[in-house]
Amino acid sequence: MSESTIIYENDVKQIDKLLARLISEAEAKCALLVDKDGRLITRQGFTNTLDTTALGALLAGSFASTKEIARLVGE
């Protein structure tokens, strides 16, 4: 069973400011913060054309795969 993460509104506002700064400094189009289960926590930038639900699920799968590969090779 997975534990739920609780993030308060003030925390999300601070995270949004940091993501906006990251986008600016990295010259990126957008940034997403997704938990390890694929749930979108917050986003910044041009995300209107993205299916953030599908992207979150794919990112979670990629994270899980990479974690398992690292475990298998002893990293």
Outline:
With 75 residues, the protein is of the alpha+beta class. It contains two helices and two strands, in the order H-E-E-H. A two-stranded antiparallel sheet has the order 1-2.
Fold and architecture overview:
3% of the residues are buried. The protein contains 2 helices and 2 strands; from the N terminus they run H-E-E-H. The protein starts with 8 loop residues before the first helix and ends with a helix. By secondary structure, it is α+β, with helices and mostly antiparallel strands. The model has no long low-confidence stretch (mean pLDDT 92).
Helix count equals 2
Distance between the termini: 25 Å
Question: Low-confidence stretches at least 5 residues in length (pLDDT < 50)?
Answer: none
The largest beta-sheet arranges its strands as 1-2
Helix residue percentage: 40-55%
**SSE sequence, one letter per element:** HEEH
Rg (C-alpha, Å):
14 Å
Which oligomerization state do the chains in this entry correspond to? single chain
